[in-house]
Every structure is written in C-alpha cells, then in structure tokens.
Amino acid sequence: MDGTNGLVRRVGAFGLALLFVVSVVAGVGGIAAAYDEGADTSADDSDGVFSEEITLVFAGISITLGPPQDLDDDGVYEDVTGDGETNPFDAIAHAALVAAVDRGTFDLTDEQAGAVDVDRDGDVDYDDALALADTTGSGAMV
Predict the structure, then answer these.
(1) Given Cys at both, which of 13, 82, 88, 126 links 66, Cβ 3.0 to 4.6 Å?
(2) What is the per-residue burial (b if ≥16 Cβ within 10 Å, else e) of 91-108?
(3) Which tens digits make up the pLDDT trace of 28-76?
(4) pTM over the 0.90 mark
C-alpha cells in the first residue's frame, strides 16, 4: 500500500505544478497574481544561497520565481516565490522546481538543494513540496 500512497502523492504534486504552469500561462486568478508588487520582499538573505531569481522552462514556457527566501532563518527556504510570505503558492512553485530539476532543465547547487529540502531527508523531491503544503495549511489539497 505504501507504493500506492507514494504514487498518489506524486500525482498530486504534479497536478499542483501543472496548475501553476497553466495559471501563469493563461493568467487565470490567484496563482499568477500571487506576487504583490507593493509587498516588502527585502528579507535578510545575506548568506546568498539564492541571490537571483529562478527561471524554469516547461514546454518552451518560462516561469520566473523568487529569489527564494528563508523567512524564519531556520535554513529552509520556504518562500519559493520570493513574495515575502509562505503560502500554498510556494508549495506549487516548489513542485514546479522539483519537476524542472527531475527533467534536467534546471540545476541546483548542493547548498541550494539543501535549502529547499523541506523535509530534511537529503534529497529534493515531491515530498518536499507536499511537506511545504502541509506547513502552509494547504495540505488538504493533495
């Protein structure tokens, strides 16, 4: 039964990533408008793990995130979208990041991989996106 649960979790995470991509491309409500230009996004990121925005490419479509931020200085960069808060959009963005890394279209340094390893199991995978969703109160979506 554990294999079935893993498959369901991966399909759910992929669905979240797909929703994110479609939302950005189509410009439909919520996800594409998640960034508030008036928000203060100047969190202290002096360690420079992510000093620039992340650009992911899916089927020729570019999505720009971040730069991710560690809002509570715990070493986990839970604000993947870089909008100054942790919310369900960060879990969706994390799933998109995992998909890009898995497909070889985006590379993370070891330091960056450690920063987005939300569940601290030593790898960056869909379980991290799901763990992030759980921390944002959106875990019931998957």
Answers:
(1) 82
(2) bbbbbbbbbbbeeeebeb
(3) 333 333 333 333 444 444 457 999 999 988 778 888 998 999 999 999 9
(4) no
Q: How many domains does the chain have?
A: 1
Structure tokens at 114: 């450690």
Alpha-carbon distances of 141 from 73, 95, 130, 138, rounded to whole Å: 27, 13, 10, 6
Strand partners, 69: 79
User: Which residue in 81, 85, 89, 80 sits closest to 117, CA to CA?
Assistant: 80
**Rounded to whole angstroms, how far apart are CA atoms 3 and 6?**
5
- H-run or E-run covering 58: strand 54-58
